Known about the structure:
single chain, 299 residues, two-stranded antiparallel sheet, 2 strands, 68% helix
Amino acid sequence: MTTTATPATAAADPPAPPEDPLATRRVAPRRRYGRWLVTAIVLALTVEAVRALAANPAYQWDRISYYFTLDVVLDALLVTLEVTAVSAVVGFVGGVVLALGRMSGNPLVNALSWFYIWFFRSLPLVVLLIIIFNASLFFPQIGINVPFGPSLVSYDVEGLLVPFVAAVVGLSLNEAAFAAEIIRGGLLSVDHGQIEAANALGLSPWRRLRQVVLPQALRSIVPGYVNQLIGLVKASSLVYYVSLVDLFGIVYQLESTHVSDKVAVLLVGTAWYLLIAALLSVLQHYVERHYSRGWEVRS
């Protein structure tokens, strides 16, 4: 019978290295004295600006509250919103058609779309509005004619182009030219591999556009187009040149007739335009967030 000898004791563990004293010290945040100084200066200037605005009697704050909700001002504001909304819709539809025309393989359609965009982007908006408002001088009547034959239907242009219609037509023609390039840029930003994959799946052109191209293109189109809408709101002030009294028009009339309240009236007009732009910016934020789902960079 044999027996196996066991080791008497295991080897002792090596002693732990001495603790680094730097590892036990509390990590203190870096002191950014320059940032604190800049923040203090900006804060002081902001407080001083607010105090100057609030304490300066020239701003006539009591009169601002009166003019801000005056009936004629609200009516003019409604005209501005209506002209802007209708022009935005018509301009967007026209922009889609022009963008597709610019991307068309048909050389004639492509050339005509390019010419439209070039012409209306080059023409100053105020000149365009005045030309349309006086279109009856160029074309007293419009209608549908049989080629080289009699006229089927004709209308008096002067009766059709009332100020509201002339304003919408002018803004829409101009808006479509700028919207077309924004939409075309968004469509071109879609990776061509996505389109090839949709073709490989056998999707029809409409389904490919609706389910593959547009959801990706809108992420690029929305920021630029909302920016264009804000520009359209400001450009709508030019409709006063076609005898349409919008927000700018009523402000111009009020500050001319109420000279003592000129500052208050101008500030009311400024406040309403700023408020509209702020609402559009909020809308842009939520629309962008909707179309960027699944594309955020996750940490």
